[in-house]
Amino acid sequence: MQKAGLASGLALTISLSIAGTAVGDEIRYVGSSTVNKFLTAAAEVYTAHSFNVDTGPESSGGEVCTLQGSCDMGGVARDVKSEILDQGVEATLIGRDAIAVIVNPANPVEDLSTEQLRGIFTGEITNWSEVGGADAPISPYIVTAGSATRSVFQSIILDGDDYAGAEVIEPDARMVPTVARDPNAIGQISFSFTLGVDAVRAIGVDGEAATVENPTYPITRPLHITTNGAPSGAVAEFLEWTLSDEGQAAVRQNFVGVQ
Asked: Which of 95, 146, 177, 204 is most buried as measured by Cβ atoms within 10 A of its Cβ?
């Protein structure tokens, strides 16, 4: 179950455990809200330890807290920076995520190319009629700068160009309801946030669909758990479980597994 804890702005710290189940050490997690989707699924079946979760700092915070030793493990939804790894942080790959391009269900557009998406998110394409949709202005939304979703999307789709004309949504979880309210919206978010949701629709990119079974979808990224040095104690036990068949089954509820 999820129990609300201390909130800082829009960031929420929660504890994850199974109701009525005795658990061992509490593992302090800071970082990616996307990786936390896995922790939430894991907490339904993993009973050896509980989790104290802070997703406010997103992936950047997952790197910093690990390096500083202020968390037991971090979550990073992209490649971990080399300068972080060079200082002794270790990254364990637990799965891969698709970054979905989402639109309002009323939007008739089914697929966009990388070039079309680059035009939309750099402000060069401003009307849906330019990409096969209705004659209506495009409302692009992007997540906050601290989120790996934003930087990975920028690297793959914008080829390093800057975003232009897009409204920033914070935290990431607000992206789905924002796009759901705007018939002209287009947004970026981990595909895991769209599962079981009818209020938005993930469209294809270059003819590929974002699913937990499609590793060839073009906007994908690695999901890492980071530790300060080699994992030990409760974290080592949890990571061993994560890479087991049972743990990977929990990963595959929202992501592409590594096994």
From this structure: 95
